[in-house]
Amino acid sequence: MGMIAASCAETTSPQENREAAIYTTVIRWSMAEHPPAPPEDPDELPAVFVESLTPEVIPIEVQVEVIDRLIDEASVRFTDSRAEAVDEDDPAQPVRAGSILIGLGAIPDGSAPSLRVEIYQSLDDVYGYLVAVVPDGVDWKLDGEPEVTEAEGLIVVED
Amino acid sequence: MVRGRTDFDKLLRIHPVHSAAEAFFAVSLAGSLFFNVSVDAARPRILLYLALTMAPFALLAPLIGPLIDRVRGGPRIVLSITLASRGVLAMMLATQLRTLALFPLAFGIMVLGRTYSVARTAMVPSLVHDPERLVAANARLALIGTIGGTLGGVAAVGVLASTSAPWVLRSSAIIYLLGAVLATRLPLSSEHGPEAPVEEYLELHDSVVQATTLDMAALRAAVGFLFFHLGFVLKSQGAPAWFFGLVLAASSLGGFSGNILAPWVRKHLREQPILTVSLIIPAAAAFVAGLRFHGITVLVLVAALGVSASIARRAYDSVVQTRAPHARQGRAYAWLETRLEVAWVLGAFAAVAGRLRDWVGLMVLAVALGLVALLHRRWRRTWVRLVELQHSDPLAERLLRTAEQLASQGDNEQSVITATAAAEIASADSTATGTNGALGELKALRDGVLAGAVPQPGSALRLARQVVSGQTD
Question: B450 and B365 in one domain?
């Protein structure tokens, strides 16, 4: 009975909903801007790896919400370690299966936050942006063109 | 399939069905949220639900034995509930695989699986009427369970490939419910030998049984640790889902091979060396895998642990049957099995909470198993030496010590009778006649006990010491 009660009690808070909605918008834009390679099986969705650019882990409630919102568009996989997303045996260190690794910065409070976003495809293909978003009904949308910045978090420092 | 003619045959039909359902459940997790969320984000949830589900299990599992022993229809009630409940949870989980409800539902299924294991172990003595056949019966159960699990795993992969993970879970629900129906055919009443609670308690707390249980618990903890450690590590390294399947297959193959090899191994080695070797082999495999973390070394380690755990289990069953012949009640086996299941949980907890790197976790495992093997060996040497020393003493002195132990445990009647026996043997061996008076008094005390008088162990022991040591009146 406890298991059933626990399984029914899982809901996201307004803050988590906000974060999930913003991250979903940003991931969607990232996939449009730097499309991952289509999978070999046409019935499968493209995989997209997501990593936090801050030391804090993106809460699991937010992760689950993002995965659910993009369930018909991509197979979103949150990672803690580079090795999960990147083929480190390949000298170019590309993301597995031609996909992309999206780094997400922290979301400030406010009605028009900007957050740092980085997109990694291989050692030579790393892009940084500052993305501003505004509310759009229950969702969020980009507020103008993202500003190109220096990529820092997803840069691989070679020995 | 041969028509079952005995009650045990009914359990032999249920167990592979349970194992097949468990395999379906395991395969379904390939389509779960676990592969989409980050390990660090999932870790607190896993720890939480591990604690929430296993804590009540540790408290309630010892009650399973008495339920099986004393309640009419106890075996069928417990097994039916653990199977049917899992069927219900699996059906719920089919729609929640990609939500946070995955965690409580999946751990609910896991803890009910552990409960099933305790119940199944506890009911075997009541279904196998010949105590000499207990070890063989458990071996048959383990073998047929592995076969059921392997076939179930293959079928589950086929279902997953042709449909989706939710349908694999729905299939597992149907199989669990089939098992629950089969469980309703278990006998209503259980047969047990006469109760001997004192002897049962003493035998189960015998140093050999305790040491062997510790070895078996170490292996169980290793299984729990490796299951979660590899789960996290392989995910962090981006291992594809099929490799997880390969790991499960290696574990199954190891278990199956161990069950096949166990009778041959037991013909050539006694139980205690089997247990030592069963600890050393996975320790060595973990050490090698820690030195070179690679798909092959990981699969070898998993298989080695499966083989060792299976062979060790047969040796453990043999030790318990030999050293605890009065432990025929379900509660005794439930008590032992619960300790082993709790060890599994503790191993799992250590893996989840430890956050160890791939090779570090395996080195820790290697060291832990190696230490237990070393301790076992040292204990074994000490115990063998003590037994030799004990047996080197004359019989009369050993009986006198037994009489003193019985008196200290409050068993005064047995103490007086045993003390008298010690004195009679010493007197028969001795040519001294000065102790005849003491012997006569002792015999009078014994006759008094047999006639119902209040035993006087203090006087009996004093007189017996006089006779055994050859002191004259």
Answer: no
